[in-house]
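Suppose a classmate hands you a notebook page containing two proteins, each written out with its sequence and a corresponding row of structure tokens. How would you begin to make sense of it? This section walks through that situation. The first entry is reproduced here exactly as it would appear on such a page.
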Amino acid sequence: MDLKYVEILAKKSKDGDNLSKENLIEEFRPFIRNLSRKTFIHGYDKNDIENECYKNLFKCLNSYDLEKHRFVAYATNGIKNNLNDLIRKTKNRDNSEGSCALTLSDNLEDALPSNEPNLEDMLCNECDLDLLKYAIKKLTKEEQELIDFIFFKNNTIRLYSSLKNMCYSTAAKRKMEVLKKINKIFSSFNEICVN
């Protein structure tokens, strides 16, 4: 692409010369074809993307100021930015259109989320909570304090280690040992339930 020639075409096109506009399209055709081949936009085929690029080329031509910068850089950036905006817009629309969209069928109540809590989930969560309380009661006072400090009060191991005047690695190791102990209690409870 000859930059000086494109600048001349842009100036003539701005003045209303239709032949210059056609020549400008021919100059940008390889760039637009290459860009549209590399770009995927949901709901657009290659020709749609090319047409969007040409539309944006003329939009850039209308808003172009001859004294400020070169037209080639201005137009290529404008075309790329327009495609990025299209990608962003279609990405947000993807979930409500196309094959992922909700279809009306006999089992619609299974597909729609319910605001009512699921009884099975509530019972499972309650059982898990009871089992966790039981497992924590089986721990020593120091282990219970560690679990409470890190998991229930959302503090870090580093803070725990500095408050207890111990090495960070020792506190981390202690935390892992306590979690293994709780896991062992859970596993033994599951074995009892299965048998």
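The notebook's second entry, a different protein, reads as follows.
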Amino acid sequence: MPIQIANESNNSGGGGGGGHEIKVKIAYNGEVMITYIDESISYEGLCREMREICRFSPDQVFTMKWVDEENDPCTIQSDIELDEAIRLYEVNRDSELVIHGGRTSNKF
């Protein structure tokens, strides 16, 4: 799925369809990229979008953190946490959802 970089045209991020789109600003590796996701996107769908945008390999472990209304980073690791980020985005009528991506070690 194509991404939009600093472009206001609408592009579905691969969600379940039917809902409205959310502007997402992704910060990774010193770059800021803009994409649009469906409000009903799953955690796995967002992971696919992040892999494509940030050019992570299929086996690359990475983290996603969204920035809440108090500018605190909140980790997204499940559908529940993603749903909460989207819910607060809508409640606060934010213009965009800010997500920071980061690589983590593959070794445990």
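A careful reader of the second entry would note: Helices lie at 43-54, 79-91.
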